[in-house]
Write a structure and sequence with these properties.
42% helix, alpha/beta, 8 helices
């Protein structure tokens, strides 16, 4: 088993990871998000995503990207901490941080076979989904674990 630090890749490392899988005839599963406050709902989705291929690559928004998307009070946890927590999960084979607001350029570069998002998205809303399907890949919408949300967790903490 690789150490979590070894699973955190830059863009070039993620590309090499994806190429190596493709050359071996293996399936790359991709999902992305802010993963700002990691909770059981995230773990559930990550574990379910991993079941759909040979390797799971998580792309996480950089601190600046999260701030642009969620506001000045976010992220709660900095990107290095989020990356190491996610890389520590057994189901995760690689983590890459991206600075854009969406992972579309990263998806075009990595060419995953399967893209997974939670049921808070509809298939047609999944950024990069058309790129994946255009190459014969799948976009899967998986059920969410009810009652979990980073925003709700943060709000609950503010009340205490």
């Amino acid at each position: 088993m690789r150490a979590p630090e070894e699973k955190i890749l830059d863009r070039d490392g993620a590309l090499a990871f994806a190429r190596k899988l493709r050359e071996a005839g293996k399936t790359l599963v991709f999902t992305n998000g802010c993963f700002d406050v990691l909770h059981a709902g995230h773990a559930y989705l990550i574990n379910e995503a991993r079941k759909h291929g040979d390797a799971l690559l998580l792309a996480i928004n950089s601190d600046q990207s999260v701030k642009r998307l969620k506001g000045d009070s976010r992220p709660v946890n900095k990107e290095e901490d989020r990356a190491i927590l996610l890389a520590s999960l057994q189901a995760v084979d690689a983590v890459v941080v991206f600075d854009e607001d969406t992972p579309e350029a990263l998806i075009a570069l990595l060419r995953p076979d399967v893209m997974v998002k939670g049921a808070d998205y509809r298939k047609e809303q999944v950024v990069g989904g058309r790129l994946v399907e255009a190459r014969g890949g799948q976009v899967l919408i998986l059920p969410l674990k009810p009652g979990y949300s980073s925003s709700k967790t943060i709000e609950n903490l503010k009340k205490k």
